[in-house]
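Re: guanosine-5'-diphosphate-rhamnose structure - here you go.
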Amino acid sequence: MSQKRALITGITGQDGSYLAELLISKGYKVFGIKRRTSAPIMENIIHIANEIEFIDGDLQDLGSLIQAVKISNPDEVYNLAAQSFVGTSWAQPVLTAQSTAIGVTNMLEAVRLVKPDARFYQASSSEMFGKVVETPQVETTPFYPRSPYGVAKVYGHWITVNYRESYDMFACSGILFNHESPRRGIEFVTRKVTDAVARIKLGLQNELRMGNLDSKRDWGFAGDYVQAMWLMLQQDAPDDFVISTGETHTVEELVEIAFSHAGLNWRDYIVIDPKFVRPAEVDLLLGDCTKAKEKLGWKLDVGFEELVKMMVDSDLERVRKEIR
Ligand code: NDP
Ligand code: GDR
C-alpha cells in the first residue's frame, strides 16, 4: 500500500504538534500549512520539523490553500487552524470570524476543487454549546454560543456538515472539549496557572491575576484527543463526535491542585482582576462521549489531576532551565 498523505492546518499549535507526531508514527507523509511570521515560533514542532513538509499559507487566503492541497495531494486533511483564544475573540471579532469561520469554507473549497475525495476533519468545539441548555452535552445538544469565537465555530461546524451533505464529501466534525498539555498556549487558563506556579515557586513572580474561578470545564489531555481526530477519518462513513472526559472541575479546583503540587497555598497568590473576566461566560461544560467510545473505540489515558501535575512539572523544568 502506498504511503498515506495528510495535510494539517494549525500544525504549529498544540493539537497540530501532537497530531503530526501521531501521523508520523503511523507512517504518514505529513504536510503542514504554516503562516509566514517575522519571527517564526516553532517551539511545539521543532523536534519533528525535519519530518514535516511545510507549505506557506493562511486560512484567509483561498489561493494558498488550493496550492497547498495541490502540493500535498492529501488522503486526509485536518483543519486545526483558528484564532483559538476565546478572550481575544471579543477584541478581534472580525478576524476571528474570518479565520475561525470563513477559513473553514476556504479550506473546504480548496479540498472540493482540488481533491474532493480527501477525508476532512474540522476542529469544532464545546464552546458551541455555550450557555447551558442541557447537561451533559452530547452531539444533539442545541448550540448557544457565548463568544464571537463560539459563534464562529458554530458556522465552521455547520458548513462542514453542509459540504458533507451537498457534495458527499467525507467531512467530519469533532466537538472537542477543552484539552491541554505542556504545549498549551500560555494565555489559556491551565497553562497560565502552571507557568505562574513554576515562576512563583522559583521566586520569579509573587502573584497571579485571574478572572472567574467558578466556571467549570471538562479538561482532558491533548495527546489523547488527537487520537480521536484520526479515528474519525478511519470510519466507513463521516460523522460528528463529542470528545470529552465526562468529568467537570472548577477553575478554582485547577488552581488548588496546581499550587499544592508545588507545595504552595493558592490563596496567598491569586488576585481577582476584572480585566480577565469575560463579557459573557460559559459556566459549565461537561461532555458525554459515549458515541465516540462505542463507534470509534476511543478512550482516554490521562485524567485531570495527572494532567495538571504533568503541566506543573513541565513548567518547573522549563523555568529552571531558563534561569540556569
Ligand atoms: P492553537 O491556538 O494552539 O493553534 C492554532 C493554530 O492555528 C496555530 O498553528 C496558528 O498558527 C494557526 N492559525 C491561526 N490562524 C491562522 C490562519 N489564519 N491561517 C493559518 N493558520 C492559522 O490551538 P489548539 O491546537 O489548541 O486547537 C486546535 C484547533 O482546535 C483550533 O481550531 C481550536 O479552536 C480547536 N479547539 C481546541 C480545543 C482545545 O481545548 N485546545 C477544544 C476544541 C476546539 P500560528 O502559530 O501562526 O499562530
Ligand atoms: P476556554 O479556555 O475559554 O474554555 O476555551 P480558557 O482556558 O481560556 O478559559 C477557561 C475558563 O477559565 C476562566 N478563567 C480564565 N481564563 C483565562 N484564559 N485566563 C484567566 O486569567 C482566567 N481566569 C478565569 C475563563 O473565564 C473560562 O471560564 C478553550 C480554547 O482552547 C478554545 O479554543 C476551545 O474551543 C475551548 O477551550 C473548548
